[in-house]
């Protein structure tokens, strides 16, 4: 190592200490070419204010009202099933003429109607995804299969990371490609699970609605309601959780923690370069 680097050992220790203090701050790094920008994480007050503003939008208000209804009527049904109100068990808790059984039927019909909002309301988009899935998996030609998969990946681009060949992309596009697209591609079987989970949720909801509307509470078998509600919730939950995990993974891959940018520089000899906090790395001469 060149002897002119020896007097800088003390300054190197000071600089490493400063960098260690900088890394102790809870912040996120975003990179644009050769520059790094520190963006502090939003506090819970900012998140709550953003959520309140979203609640004031038409979509947010509708989703909030829908969710509150599901929670309220679902909670009431749970309490009735647990015999939380003994006064309603007259002449007995299992009597079809008791207030408990009547309100169980009312709650079940209301919850069925609420589930139909999503099961039937999202059916056109789910059928579209299934249509593209058939092109992808059962297409006669390679071009049709590729077209179906490309369309599905574009529809679900908020959570699905499609693998891209470098030779198929222009040089300028590869340089500006975000880090999320450079992460590990999403396994293809997850697209199958999401498409079929969503379409099966609609199918099970149709079966539930047919049982609830075609038969009265005296003739309807009790197992039909529990079976179709459980199946519809399971398939929708699996698809939703899978999309949430993949979206979280893509978001994590797109972030650049400050430690990944600053630690390699700290391992090299560095000297102050100009103003405080501005450091320039020096390559040792052999």
From TrEMBL:
Keyword presence, Membrane: yes
Name of one Pfam family that matches: DUF2985
InterPro entries according to UniProt: DUF2985
Keyword list, A-Z: Membrane, Transmembrane, Transmembrane helix
Transmembrane segments: 63-88, 108-127, 193-215, 227-245
This protein's record includes keyword Transmembrane: yes
Record PANTHER family: ALPHA-L-RHAMNOSIDASE C, INTEGRAL MEMBRANE PROTEIN (AFU_ORTHOLOGUE AFUA_5G07110)
Name under which the protein is recorded: Uncharacterized protein
Organism in which the protein naturally occurs: Penicillium desertorum
């Amino acid at each position: 190592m060149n002897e002119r680097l020896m007097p800088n050992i003390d300054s190197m220790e000071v600089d490493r200490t400063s960098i260690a203090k900088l890394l102790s701050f809870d912040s996120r790094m975003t990179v644009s070419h050769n520059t790094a920008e520190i963006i502090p994480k939003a506090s819970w007050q900012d998140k709550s204010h953003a959520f309140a503003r979203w609640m004031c939008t038409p979509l947010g208000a509708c989703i909030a009202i829908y969710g509150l209804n599901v929670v309220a009527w679902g909670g009431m049904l749970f309490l009735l099933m647990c015999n939380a109100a003994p006064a309603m068990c007259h002449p007995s808790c299992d009597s079809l003429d008791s207030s408990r059984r009547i309100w169980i039927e009312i709650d079940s019909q209301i919850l069925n109607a609420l589930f139909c909002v999503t099961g039937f309301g999202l059916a056109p988009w789910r059928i579209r995804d299934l249509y593209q899935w058939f092109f992808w998996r059962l297409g006669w030609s390679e071009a049709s299969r590729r077209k179906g998969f490309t369309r599905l990946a574009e529809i679900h681009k908020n959570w699905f990371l499609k693998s891209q060949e470098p030779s198929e992309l222009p040089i300028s596009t590869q340089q500006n490609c975000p880090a999320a697209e450079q992460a590990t591609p999403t396994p293809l079987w997850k697209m199958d699970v999401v498409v079929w989970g969503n379409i099966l949720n609609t199918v099970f909801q149709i079966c539930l609605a047919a049982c609830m509307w075609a038969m009265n509470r005296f003739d309807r078998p009790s197992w039909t309601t529990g079976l179709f509600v459980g199946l519809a919730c399971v398939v929708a939950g699996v698809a939703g959780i899978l999309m949430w995990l993949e979206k979280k993974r893509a978001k994590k891959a797109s972030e650049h923690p400050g430690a990944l940018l600053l630690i390699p520089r700290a391992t090299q000899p560095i000297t102050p370069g100009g103003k405080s906090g501005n450091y320039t790395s020096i390559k040792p001469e052999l």
